[in-house]
């Protein structure tokens, strides 16, 4: 998996700064979403209105810098003010950020005409959707930011269904793991979970994914700190986060899994972990939808479209 960090770090260095400067701040406060304001420990420090796409940046004590969030609204949101909508939280992968699905995967086109709000938050270059065991770079409590602050802020400021049948979570790579983890740990939050090339097993292959989380977070996020602890893991935390050890938490939920068939430093362990997860779900009689397709570690447009349509079919209707 170390090859992915190197490749994407170079890509981000080349294009990330330019993309950020293209954002045009237009002031805080009123927007097509209505009177959007501070709350839940979040202070809006930047805001941009890009039609359906609303961009926010926050100050929060949970993160040592100011994370960004894209909120993609459905067509008609500004005029159909009586209508509430289901929400899909869409989580990016390692060495990516909140712009990934807009810049690379045409999330606006994939959701055109669909009555769904899509929330795409920063999760750190190697945050692993966790509160780390140790950090030497200030607060990087991504789990607390998302679950304790962002979700209630979204529900307070947008016309959502603030309930189990109103929320889905999906993600790519590290974000796919985050989606699986959040669904298990926060049982009543999400009725649908999707992992696009996301790891589903932390301990297999001599704990490969835990070692990768620790190594990548130490390098790219925590200045030598780690998500799970090193050289000794916080075993309780690993168990709490490990999808294959939380199987009953997925019962009665929509489960959507995608991985590639190529042999690849990223996709091979992901595929092995998803197969283990699927086998255990089968043993428990827990239904799930899965796909293994040609190629390696990337978001497949047709699968993301299928996922979005499945989310809409499962959640409470707008």
Automatic annotation (TrEMBL):
It comes from the Bacteria. Pfam families: Esterase. It catalyses: 2 alpha,alpha'-trehalose 6-mycolate = alpha,alpha'-trehalose 6,6'-bismycolate + alpha,alpha-trehalose; an acyl-CoA + a 1,2-diacyl-sn-glycerol = a triacyl-sn-glycerol + CoA. InterPro entries: AB_hydrolase_fold (IPR029058), Esterase-like (IPR000801), Mycobacterial_A85_antigen (IPR050583), TAT_signal (IPR006311). Keywords: Acyltransferase, Transferase. PANTHER family: DIACYLGLYCEROL ACYLTRANSFERASE_MYCOLYLTRANSFERASE AG85A, ENTEROCHELIN ESTERASE-RELATED. Belongs to the mycobacterial A85 antigen family. This is Acyl-CoA:diacylglycerol acyltransferase. It comes from Aeromicrobium terrae. GO terms for molecular function: diacylglycerol O-acyltransferase activity; trehalose O-mycolyltransferase activity. Its EC number is 2.3.1.122, 2.3.1.20. It is an enzyme of class 2 (transferase).
């Amino acid at each position: 998996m170390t090859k992915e960090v190197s490749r994407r770090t170079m890509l981000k260095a080349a294009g990330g700064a330019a993309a950020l400067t293209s954002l045009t701040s237009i002031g805080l406060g009123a927007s097509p979403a209505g009177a959007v304001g501070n709350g839940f420990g979040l202070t809006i420090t930047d805001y941009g209105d890009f039609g359906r796409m609303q961009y926010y940046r926050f100050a929060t004590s949970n993160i040592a810098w100011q994370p960004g969030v894209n909120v993609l609204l459905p067509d008609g949101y500004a005029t159909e003010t009586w209508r509430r909508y289901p929400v899909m939280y869409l989580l990016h992968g390692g060495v990516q950020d909140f712009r990934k699905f807009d810049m690379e995967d045409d999330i606006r086109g994939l959701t055109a005409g669909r009555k769904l709000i899509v929330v795409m938050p920063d999760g750190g270059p190697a945050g692993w959707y966790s509160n780390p065991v140790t950090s030497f770079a200030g607060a990087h409590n991504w789990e607390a930011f998302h679950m304790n602050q962002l979700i209630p802020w979204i529900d307070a400021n947008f016309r959502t269904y603030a309930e189990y049948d109103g929320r889905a979570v999906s993600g790519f790579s590290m974000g796919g793991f985050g989606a699986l983890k959040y669904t298990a740990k926060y049982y009543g939050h999400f009725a649908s979970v999707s992992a696009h090339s996301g790891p589903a097993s932390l301990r297999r292959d001599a704990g490969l994914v835990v070692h990768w989380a620790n190594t990548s977070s130490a390098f790219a996020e925590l200045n030598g700190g780690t998500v799970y602890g090193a050289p000794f893991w916080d075993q309780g935390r690993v168990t709490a986060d490990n999808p294959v050890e939380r199987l009953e938490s997925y019962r009665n939920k929509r489960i959507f899994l995608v991985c590639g068939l190529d042999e690849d430093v990223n996709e091979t362990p992901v595929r092995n972990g998803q197969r283990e997860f699927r086998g255990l779900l089968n043993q428990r009689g827990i239904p799930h939808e899965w796909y293994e397709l040609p190629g390696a570690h990337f978001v497949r447009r047709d699968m993301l479209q299928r996922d979005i349509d499945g989310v809409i079919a499962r959640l409470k209707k707008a």
